[in-house]
């Protein structure tokens, strides 16, 4: 087949260029549709708008985070009732454990949440820490997460609908995204 394509390009260069353009445009359109479908799946999986998340209690938001991770095939456990020591959810991606501090707040999340995530992750033998909020992070929280010895993933309202993917990529790479 490859030789046939080469012969086509040599014998009929204009047709060859046309074939390349059609294939390229088709591949681009296919990839764009794949991205749109992934977004639709995520929206169905999450089932909540940002407004819905803003209306949840802290405990409901923790349950939602756990459900989203489990729905994406990531084993996750809400440990709120067992003395969380700074993390609310422990997720496992392969052998990597991620301690997740969940904050459902109306205001910005500060660096104390990062400190809690780091302390709780250590206590629960997690090699990575994360803080998830439907709100935003202060610059102090971002700075502390960036400078921590243990990698810390921050997921705010701009990225909340990519939560499962971000946790998977974070656990696989060990680097905050």
What's the overall average pLDDT, rounded? 87
Tell me what the CATH architecture of the largest domain is.
Answer: 3-Layer(aba) Sandwich
Number of strands: 5
Order of helices and strands: HHHHEEEHEHEH
The largest sheet is: 5 strands, mixed
Overall CATH class of the largest domain: Alpha Beta
Query: By helix and strand content, what is the structural category?
Result: alpha/beta
Low-confidence stretches: none
How many distinct domains? 2
The backbone outline, from C-alpha atoms, is: elongated
Beta content: 5-15%
Give the spatial strand order of the biggest sheet.
Answer: 1-2-3-4-5
Q: What is the number of helices?
A: 7
Query: Could you say what the CATH topology of the largest domain is called?
Result: Trna Endonuclease, Chain: A, domain 1
| C-alpha end-to-end distance | 41 Å
Radius of gyration: 22 Å
Provide key terms for this protein:
5 strands; 7 helices; single chain; five-stranded mixed sheet; 177 residues; alpha/beta; Trna Endonuclease, Chain: A, domain 1
Give your account of this protein's structure.
The chain is 54% helix and 15% strand. The protein has seven helices and five strands, in the order H-H-H-H-E-E-E-H-E-H-E-H. A five-stranded mixed sheet has the order 1-2-3-4-5, with helices on both faces. Helix 1 crosses helix 2 and helix 5 runs parallel beside helix 6. The protein is elongated, with a radius of gyration of 22 Å.
Summarize the structure.
The protein is an alpha/beta fold. It contains 7 helices and 5 strands. Helix 5 (111-123) links the parallel strand 3 and strand 4.
């Amino acid at each position: 087949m490859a030789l046939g394509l080469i012969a086509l390009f040599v014998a009929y260069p204009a047709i060859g260029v046309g074939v390349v353009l059609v294939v390229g445009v088709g591949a681009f359109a296919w990839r764009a549709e794949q991205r749109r479908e992934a977004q639709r799946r995520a929206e169905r999986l999450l089932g909540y708008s940002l407004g819905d998340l803003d209306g949840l209690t802290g405990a409901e938001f923790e349950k939602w985070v756990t459900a989203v991770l489990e729905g994406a095939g990531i084993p996750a456990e809400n440990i709120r009732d067992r003395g969380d020591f700074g993390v609310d959810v422990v997720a496992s991606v392969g052998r990597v454990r991620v301690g997740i501090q969940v904050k459902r707040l109306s205001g910005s999340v500060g660096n104390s949440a990062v400190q809690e995530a780091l302390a709780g992750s250590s206590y629960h033998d997690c090699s990575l820490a994360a803080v998830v909020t439907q709100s935003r992070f202060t610059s102090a929280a971002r700075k502390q997460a960036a400078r921590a010895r243990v990698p810390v993933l921050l997921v705010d309202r701009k990225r909340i609908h990519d939560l499962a993917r971000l946790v998977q990529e974070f656990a696989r790479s060990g680097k905050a995204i």
